[in-house]
Amino acid sequence: MIPGLTTGRRRFSDLSEQEVLALAISNEEDDARIYRQYAEALREAYPASAKVFEEMAVEENEHRRRLIEVHKRRFGDVIPLIRREHVSGFYARNPVWLIENLGLERMRAEAHEMERQAEQFYRKAADRSSDAETRKLLGDLAAAEAGHNVLAGDLEAKYLGGEARDEEDRSARRQFVLTWVQPGLAGLMDGSVSTLAPIFATAFATQDTRTTLLVGLAASIGAGISMGFTEAASDDGELSGRGSPVKRGFASGVMTTLGGLGHALPYLITDFWTATTLAIIVVFVELWAIVWIQNKFMDTPFGRATFQVVLGGALVFAAGALIGAG
């Protein structure tokens, strides 16, 4: 840090006991709010998991109540305004919108990490306290946070027992496939296959790497923009259940562009035959990657996927090469 300048953040070791309690209160408020948002986001599609997060929010509110009682006894009713972002080196929470977009399993993993971080905070805070009652409360909360994974397990057993957990996991996987994998795979196939003909036709017609690169860039980026907007505009996801059109458009557009760029970028190499050989190798890898994704996520039999993708790609490549050579 430049001398004379400050980040405006306090070190945890410099906080007073009142400020540590205030920080703990705001932490519990934030965590309860996050759990409630998770519950609200999951309520329609995953009602059992929503109930788990609702009860975890209730538990955090109880911690907050106990902390406020101790603060009132020791320091009065006015609680200093201090939050995580005011403390240097303090752990931060990931944005809720990011976690929501990553799905059910990511929310569960984030909740586990939140409890682990809270446990560490309370242990450090207990070590700082000189008041016996406060020290005991902070130690109890550290133990409670450590036990929250057990609590989460108990809640999951309560609300996700029997077939409920399996059903939610299947639903989450299906939603992931519909929202991300399916449009992404369509984009990758379109970008990898549809750009083969113009790129290799240009390559063999001109044998000029710069021209081929420019055509490849234009074809890949243009196809990505087109596929992205087409996917987003084709279905709002309300009736089909395929999820956000923005997410689907993003997945399709990005993967289309990457599919084309894979065999366009080798033409950054100035030697034509070296660039072309590398581009052909990249095409081979792209086509087999598509086969693997179809087999893993779309349950397409490996033989059928291989026949459809590799044969189709080979025909398009051959068409482009023959047209360019002619």
Based on DSSP secondary structure assignment, what is the total number of beta strands? 2
The overall pLDDT, averaged over residues, is: 82
* SS-derived structural category: mainly alpha
Low-confidence stretches: 1-6
Read across the widest sheet, the strand sequence of neighbours is: 1-2
Q: Please, how many domains?
A: 2
Distance between the termini: 64 Å
Biggest sheet record: 2 strands, parallel
> What letter string, H or E per element, gives the SSE order?
EHHEHHHHHHHHHH
Q: How much beta, percentage-wise?
A: under 5%
| Anisotropy-based shape | elongated
Radius of gyration: 28 Å
Helix content: over 70%
Folded structure, characterized:
- With 326 residues, this protein is mainly α.
- The chain is built from twelve helices and two strands; from the N terminus they run E-H-H-E-H-H-H-H-H-H-H-H-H-H.
- It has helices at 17-42, 47-75, 96-102, 104-128, 132-146, 148-159, 164-194, 196-206, 209-234, 245-264, 272-297, 302-325, and strands at 10-11, 87-88.
- The chain has a two-stranded parallel ribbon.
